[in-house]
Structures are given as structure tokens and as C-alpha cells.
Design a protein that fits this description.
8-stranded antiparallel β-barrel; mainly beta; about 180 residues; AOC barrel-like
Length: about 180
């Protein structure tokens, strides 16, 4: 009889736990939804770009991202050439919406230099690593592609102005739209 009462008590507790609201510190995430966007901005390289060398790459500008609307972005990454003269990079990009909510992704990409050091093509992946406002507890992942013109080259590539890069992101994200954590 004690076993039956104990088992019934456990079942009642489990049922109550399943309908109790989530505490403020553990916001319930929304469903995973597609996220995509394109940003365009200027970029610069800090350091010597040479085989065996490591340099910093920075880009900033603006664009449009689903779930954020119009955004400003700031990208920074560390890059180096591998043995096949492919540029291997990793870094972060912060997207800031008009209401100041932000989404921060970490990315790992490979770039191929085109022309006579006139432009580049980037392909890689990203994951959400931080955020603020409704993106404070966001999770997500996806792909990143870019094309760009190398500053001070004699040729502009991909129909872009000199020193301009165009980044396109696609993926999935989950966040709580009512979260306003910092």
C-alpha cells in the first residue's frame, strides 16, 4: 500500500512540474525558425598578408536580417594561409538591431583569393554565442557566404566598390521574443 501511495505521489508531482511556469532565470525558448540576411560593408586588414603570416580582418556596415530587421554589423576575425594558399579564418560578428537588441555569432570560414589579389570568396559556418534583449539566450547555427573586393587592388570584383564585402547568412535560430535580459 505504501508503494502505491508513494508512486501516486510521484506521478502527481511530475504532473504539477509539467504545468508549472518557467522561472525567470530559465526562459522557455521559442521554436527553431529560419534566419537569413545580407549585410554590406567596408573592410580592412591589419597586419601583413603573407604565407605563414597571421592577420586581423575587420568589417562593418549594415543590412537586413530576419528577426532583427535593419541591422548594423561589426565583424572581426583572425586569418592565415594554409599550405594550399587558402585563407582560414575564425572570429565573431555582432548584429545590432534598431532597438539595440544584438545577436553575436562565431564563425569559421575558408576564403579563396580571386584574380591577382583583387577579391575573395568566403564559405563557412556559424553558431550563436551571445546576444542581448530578446536574443540573450538564443541558440542557432548556419552557413555564411561572402564575396569582397580587396582594398587597393586595380580591379573591383563582384560589382562591389573597392574595399567592400557582402556577407549572406542562412540558418536556424531559437529565441524567446519576450525575453528582455541583458
Amino acid at each position: 500500500m505504501k508503494k502505491v501511495l508513494f508512486s501516486a505521489g510521484v506521478v502527481v508531482l511530475l504532473m504539477l512540474a509539467s504545468v508549472m511556469p518557467v522561472s525567470a532565470g530559465h526562459q522557455q525558448m521559442g521554436p527553431e525558425v529560419p534566419i537569413k540576411g545580407t549585410v554590406l560593408g567596408f573592410h580592412e586588414v591589419d597586419g601583413v598578408v603573407a604565407p605563414g603570416g597571421v592577420w586581423q580582418f575587420f568589417s562593418s556596415g549594415e543590412g537586413q536580417m530576419s528577426h532583427l530587421g535593419r541591422v548594423e554589423y561589426s565583424l572581426q576575425q583572425t586569418s592565415s594561409f594554409d599550405a594550399n594558399f587558402t585563407v582560414i579564418s575564425s572570429g565573431t560578428t555582432t548584429f545590432t538591431a534598431a532597438n539595440r537588441d544584438s545577436l553575436v555569432i562565431a564563425h569559421d570560414v575558408e576564403s579563396v583569393i580571386v584574380g591577382n589579389f583583387d577579391g575573395f570568396i568566403i564559405e563557412g559556418t556559424w553558431i550563436v554565442v551571445d546576444g542581448s534583449g530578446r536574443f540573450a539566450n538564443a541558440t542557432g547555427h548556419g552557413t555564411i557566404d561572402a564575396v569582397g573586393d580587396i582594398p587597393d587592388s586595380d580591379v573591383t570584383m563582384f560589382g562591389l566598390a573597392e574595399g567592400t564585402a557582402k556577407f549572406t547568412l542562412n540558418g536556424k535560430i531559437s529565441y524567446n521574443a519576450s525575453d528582455r535580459s541583458e
